[in-house]
What we know:
Blueprint (H helix, E strand, L loop, with lengths): L4 H12 L3 H8 L3 H8 L7 H14 L7 H17 L3 H7 L1 H18 L6 H10 L8 H18 L9 H12 L29 H12 L6 H15 L6 H15 L12 H13 L3 H21 L2
Protein name: Fido domain-containing protein
Keywords: ATP-binding, Nucleotide-binding
GO molecular function, one term: ATP binding
Amino acid sequence: MPHNYIEQIKAILNTTGLSQVELAKRLGITFAALNRWINKHSIPRAIAQKNIYALYKETVGVLPLSKETIKSLLCSLDKEKKKHLNVKKIIRDNRSFRDDLLLELTHNSNAIEGSTLTKKETESIIFDKAQIKDKSYVEHLEATNHAAALEAIFEGDFTGSITEAKIKELHRILLQGIRPDAGKYSKHHRAIRGVELTLPAPEDLPEEMQRFLRKINIVKGKIVAHIAALHADFEAIHPFGDGNGRVGRLIMIIQLLNAGYAPCVIENKRKAEYYEVLELAQRQSESHLIKFVIESILRGYQIIKRHKK
Length: 309
C-alpha cells in the first residue's frame, strides 16, 4: 500500500503520546533523523518506511479510504469501460490479446500461490506444451489447468449467475490430476498460513456456501465494490483443501466479464499488498481492497490497449 510516512509519524505521535525522542528509539533511529523526516529535509529509506508503517498499523490501524476517493476511482474505471465496449468480443476476436491475458493471468495467479515457473516457462508450457527441466509435474499441470479454466471462461462456459456447480467445476479444472478431491469441498479443517482467521468447520461449508451464493448474485451498489467484497467473503470461507485463491480470482474475472469490464490482473509483485488488503477487508474495511481491485482491472485495460488496432 502507498505510504505517506510523515502523516503516519504524526498519527503515531498523536495516538500513542510518545515524544519524538521516544518514537525515534522505538524505530531504532536517531532523534535528528526523525526530525529531518518530519520537516522534509530528508526521506527515510525503504526499510525505514516499512518500519514506520508497521508501527503505524500496530498503534493506529489502517483508516478506511473516503467515499470520495472510491467514487473518483470508480469514475476513472467507468471511463475505461466506455472506451472498450464488449470486452468479451475483444477477447474472442483478438487471439493475440487472448493469449496475452492467458499468460498474464495464469503466470501471476500461480506465482501468488507459490509456483516457481517464470513467465517465459509458463508461456512455453501453455502454448508449446514444453516440458521444463527441473520443474515439477504439478507446476506443469497448474499452468495448463489454469489456462484451460480461462479458455472455458473466455468461451462463455461460465456466463450467467455464479452457482455452486460452476464454482466446483472451476476447482475441478484447476486441480484435476493434482488432487483427488478436485471439484469437492474439503472434509478437513483448514487454515490460512500467516492469517489469524477462523475458517468454517467442514460440516458448515455447504451452509456457508449457500449463504455466499445468495449474496453474490444480488448486487447492491457499485458492481466492482460488490465483487471485491464477495471475493473477501469467499476467501474467508476457504471451502476447498487447496486452490481457493485461484478459484476466487477466477470468480472475480467471470463477474467482471459478465458486467462488461476487463479482467482484473493481480500481479505477483503485489502479492504482499493483495494479502494485506484482503485481510483488512475481512476484519475492518473493504475500501482498500476495492481500490486494489480497481487498479487490477485497469491493468487489464492496459493489456487491451497494447493490442487494440
